[in-house]
């Protein structure tokens, strides 16, 4: 492709329309390269409705824009899996040594998976969403029946 038809060619001039510019800041000649001159010229430039979201430490406050927060865990969550059939259930495992199977639509807990001795770091649904496997840091893997809400079996790491 030649430079005339290639929009990425450095030889081609780029045209800007007046409506493309938001604000033009003129710097005076003597301060045009200094940071102070730039700061003076830019002090009135804004980027819309700015809100001071800093906390007392000067850190930016986190904005919670989640549609749903599952809050049954009492410590950090390390794993979340979604059922592959309907995408309506989730299983989450965490530092509280528990896993929970819950409904995504409203966060209702469908089953509490107890019996782990360490943080639950792995979770997975079976291909048909009828079983869930949860694994903890001690090497224990537990299989749960989603339909009957009972433990189906366990696997332990051999030492």
Task: Describe it.
- With 159 residues, the protein is mostly beta strands.
- The chain has one helix and eight strands.
- The strands form two sheets. Strands 1-2-3-4 form a four-stranded antiparallel beta sheet, with no helix packed on it.
- Strand 1 and strand 2 form a beta hairpin.
Sum up the structure in keywords.
159 residues, mainly beta, four-stranded antiparallel sheet, WD40_repeat_dom_sf
Strand and helix layout:
Blueprint: H1 35-42, E1 77-82, E2 89-94, E3 99-103, E4 109-113, E5 120-125, E6 131-136, E7 141-145, E8 150-155
Antiparallel strand pairs: 1-2, 2-3, 3-4, 5-6, 6-7, 7-8
Task: Summarize this entry quickly.
The chain is mainly β. The protein has one helix at residues 35-42, and strands at residues 77-82, 89-94, 99-103, 109-113, 120-125, 131-136, 141-145, 150-155.
On the 0-100 scale, what is the average pLDDT? 82
Number of helices: 1
Return residue spans where pLDDT drops below 50 for at least 5 consecutive residues. Answer: none
Gap from first CA to last CA: 64 Å
Order of helices and strands: HEEEEEEEE
Oligomer category:
single chain
| Biggest sheet details | 4 strands, antiparallel
Helix-and-strand structural type: mainly beta
Rounded to an integer in angstroms, the radius of gyration calculated over CA atoms is 28 Å
Strand arrangement within the widest β-sheet reads 1-2-3-4
Identify the overall geometry: elongated
């Amino acid at each position: 492709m030649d430079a005339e038809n290639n929009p990425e060619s450095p030889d081609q001039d780029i045209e800007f329309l007046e409506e493309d510019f938001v604000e033009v800041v003129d710097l005076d000649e003597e301060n045009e390269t200094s940071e102070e001159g730039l700061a003076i010229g830019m002090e009135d430039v804004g980027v819309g409705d700015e809100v001071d979201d800093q906390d007392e430490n000067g850190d930016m406050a986190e904005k919670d824009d989640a549609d749903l927060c599952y809050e049954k865990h009492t410590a950090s969550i390390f794993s979340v899996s979604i059922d592959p059939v309907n995408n309506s259930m989730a299983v989450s495992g965490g530092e509280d040594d528990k896993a929970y199977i819950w409904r995504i639509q409203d966060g209702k807990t469908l089953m509490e998976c107890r019996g782990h001795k360490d943080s639950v770091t792995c979770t997975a649904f079976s291909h048909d969403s009828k079983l869930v496997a949860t694994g903890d840091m001690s090497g224990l893997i537990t299989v749960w029946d989603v339909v009957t809400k009972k433990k189906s079996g366990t696997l332990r790491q051999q030492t």
